[in-house]
Give the backbone structure.
Amino acid sequence: MKPRTIGFIGTGRIAQALISGLSKEEGIALRGYDKDTEALQQVAARFGIAPESSIGDLAGNSSIIIIAVKPYQVGDVLGELRPALRVDHLLVSVAAGISTEFIASHCPEKTRVIRVMPNTPAFVGEGMTALCRGAHATDEDLALAEGIFSSIGRTAVVAESGMDGATAVSGSGPAYMFRIIDALAEGGAACGLDRDTALLLAAQTMLGAALMVLEERRSPGGKGPEELVRQVTTPGGTTEAGLREMERHGIGEALIGTVKAAADKSRELMK
């Protein structure tokens, strides 16, 4: 069977995470193009992908093209890509805030487009990728994209109207989690722990708590996060004291506001 060939335009961090996951899969050939030729050669040497010297060459040798550049670069990339696009190409964009409609408007008529928003935990195989499809993409195209991004973690299909929210929650979310872990570790250090031990305690606790939420989500009648909070909170105990302090500082409202601000910025990028 002929290998499926996936070409990457842009080989930055998210592209590398995906390349790392896909390089372990059978029946897939990977190619890459980057305007930074030195960076491209490093990625090619590290992961064994075939480097291309131009966007046109990459398109000529790929059936699936993943656009993994900054949002402001997408228009220029599509300008170079358009003459090389064929009817059998599937375009997948990881650019934050850039709609499938914008991409399709810069491509030949009926070009099939999938928009995705992965995140950096993909580097450890625990990424979260939201996907939506453009007007001409098929169920098969969407399933194919889900299969690709399942190599680096979990996937969720959303309506395009929800992609800015997905960008804010999971695309940007790792940075929020890192801040929370760091603050918990600082608190532990302030209470007498050495910093490294406090960091381990905080990070593993967040990982375990997240896994519990996911496990409950899969179970019929599973408990939501607030129910899990109640389970671990003894009246008059240490957890209750900590939660009261969180409420005093408005942590919940701050995090909701954080997501809204990131979603607003995602919408702004399209403009």
